[in-house]
Write a structure and sequence with these properties.
- The chain has about 425 residues and is α+β, with helices and mostly antiparallel strands.
- Helix content is about 65%, strand content about 10%.
- It has helices at about 1-5, 20-30, 30-50, 95-160, 165-200, 230-250, 300-370, 375-410; strands spanning about 55-65, 80-90, 255-270, 285-295.
- Strands 1-2-3-4 form a 4-stranded antiparallel sheet, with no helix packed on it.
- The longest helix is centred in the last third of the chain and has 68 residues, at about 300-370.
Length: about 425
């Protein structure tokens, strides 16, 4: 019966579907675009570090004029030089290796954060459709209740004018009818606000008349092993490792710097304005060098930078631990809440069925005159309150499931495709 109340108000052909809204949000959301850009930045930085191991080829050219006083007989006032250099840094004290490891971890961290950001975005869109559908359904329940009370009020009013009903009964139905008008108006406003919320979330003009799909059933998410917080653990581990590696790079500045480099150079110089050509003065050279550099004294700058890096690592470790524990607590609370809400959902469905049977029996007795209007109104109120409680319970379970899946980062758009 309850779904029949809403059947006439669902128009999929002219309304934004949930799948369309999800796709639009992914294309328009600044947060989604920012996280996607961060993921791309991490990929570019990783490529740059990987290319460090490859030899580099550079070209340089220099042309100009010069003067001297006094000038010698063989003095050439033209400057000319061309060089083609091939260089390869074979070892740099492990710094580049550390930077590559950091870039790899940042890439993985960006991927996991993107996964979580996508889950949060999906949760926001799906939740907004759940909320809109909930208030739409509540509004229709209030409309049906209002129409039922209005019918009884008109009947009682006619019977009152005929002397068949008491003034008290007339006033009671009148008050109940006015109360139903207020409840319907409040439900209508809540539904309208939820519609505006969807428009704002999707970056649509809320002034335009835009319709959205009313979900037949609220959308939740099924999660296996809900207390397995692999995503939070992985993010925390990566954050700590990145912070530790960055501190080690700064710490290495206190070490003697040892470099092993190889290179080859081909070029020619001072051929312009002279009797010799380019090939007469060309030169091919190659080298293999070992460089040792040690910072003896820099007024403590390196030491202070190292201390700051170590302190920053401690701060990052503490912040990461706080964030992890907070997420872990939210996860446990949400799981407990979901279990309780699911138990309440079963009870609310049973309650609605019981109240419906009671109302049907009370209605027949009221029509037959064996019970008074107070019993009828109370039974009617209880029945429609049970319908709203059932809707509320279904909505709460779906929202709790979405929250749990988003916390775990296991919410994907595949679950909401038509």
């Amino acid at each position: 019966m309850i779904f029949a109340i809403f059947a006439l108000f669902i128009n999929h052909s002219q309304a934004w579907t949930l799948n369309e809204a999800v796709q639009h949000a992914q294309q328009q959301s600044p947060l989604y675009e920012s996280q996607r850009a961060q993921k791309q930045i991490a990929a570019e930085e990783l490529k740059a570090q990987e290319y460090w191991y490859l030899p580099g080829l550079s070209f340089s050219a220099l042309y100009g004029v010069q003067g001297a006083d006094p000038e010698s007989v063989s003095y050439n006032d033209k400057i000319s030089e061309i060089n083609l250099a091939l260089t390869e840094k074979l070892y740099d004290n492990g710094v580049s290796s550390k930077r590559k490891s950091i870039a790899e971890k940042k890439m993985e961290l960006a991927r996991l954060q993107f996964q979580r950001g996508q889950a949060e975005l999906l949760r926001g869109v799906v939740s907004s459709f759940n909320t809109y559908s909930f208030f739409q359904k509540i509004m229709e329940v209030e409309r049906t209740y209002r129409d039922e009370i209005q019918k009884q009020f008109k009947l009682t009013r006619n019977q009152y004018h005929q002397g068949l009903k008491s003034h008290r009964a007339f006033l009671k139905f009148k008050a109940q009818y006015n109360r139903s008008l207020i409840s319907f108006s409040q439900a209508e406003r809540r539904m309208a606000r939820s519609k505006v919320d969807i428009s704002n979330l999707l970056n649509l003009d809320p002034i335009q008349e835009i319709e959205f799909e009313v979900l037949k059933e609220f959308k939740g998410a099924q999660v296996n092993n809900p207390l397995v917080d692999d995503l939070d653990k992985a993010i925390r581990t990566l954050e700590l490792e990145i912070s530790e590696f960055e501190a080690k790079i700064i710490e290495r500045q206190n070490w003697p710097e040892f470099y092993l480099a190889a290179g080859a150079n081909y070029g020619s110089a001072n051929y312009w304005g002279s009797s010799s050509g380019f090939s007469d003065k060309d030169l091919l050279s190659y080298s293999l060098t070992i460089n040792l550099k040690f910072n003896i004294f820099d007024w403590g700058k390196t030491r202070h930078l190292n201390n700051a890096a170590l302190l920053r690592e401690d701060v990052n470790r503490a912040n990461s631990q706080i964030k992890y524990e907070t997420n872990r607590t939210d996860l446990k609370k949400t799981q407990i809440e979901l279990e309780q809400l699911r138990a309440t959902k079963s009870l609310s469905h049973e309650l609605r069925r019981s109240e419906e049977e009671s109302y049907r029996a009370t209605e027949r007795e009221f029509r037959g005159g064996s019970i008074g209007y107070y019993d009828f109104i109370n039974s009617l109120d209880d029945y429609y309150s049970a319908i709203k409680a059932e809707l509320q319970s279904d909505y709460d379970v779906a929202e709790s499931e979405l929250r749990l899946a988003a916390l775990l980062g296991k919410l994907t758009d595949d679950e909401f495709k038509n």
